[in-house]
Design goal:
6-stranded antiparallel beta sheet, 24% helix, single chain, 4-stranded mixed beta sheet, 195 residues
Amino acid sequence: MTVSTTPSWGKRLERALLALLLCLAAAAHARSIEPLRAALTPAEDGGVVLSAEFAIDLGPRLEEAVSRGVPIYFNFEFDLNRRRWYWIDEHVAGRVQVHRLSYNALTRQYRLSSGALHQNFATLAEALQLLGRISAMPVAEKGALKPGETYSAAIRLSVDQTQLPKPFQVESIANRDWQVDARTLRWQFVAGEPK
């Protein structure tokens, strides 16, 4: 009499479905930075300003890393192009801004920095809320846009994995808990008459 040690097809199918459900659940809880809204409006000086809002979910790994003193860098990118039927799109305006989020254990405060400017916060949630809100950022100078023309705008906020310390960079490649999906928001914008 022979005894089979391999599981039946029913058990294999059950295990495969369980593995698929676990993968879907992990994908549903994937850490991400989602653009919620964005708008371009004329400025007082005749240029164009950007207002936008992002929902930021870093996940427990990155939140723990920040609270233990590992700085995390974010890249905000804005791009404005004018479509041309006869050639590639014309680049009209663009902006890249780097933000640094860190924690100081002595003062027990989170610090959000951009260039020489910085602001302290009591909680990580407060720092992420400010990071995810852009208000009246100048993006195009007076005369850069032609009234009545249609432009294609795009914004993105992402974690810069290359700025992490080297051991964390290796960990971020191998471990999904360190990765944060960053989505790009694209929309059409028709330039109005300057003020």
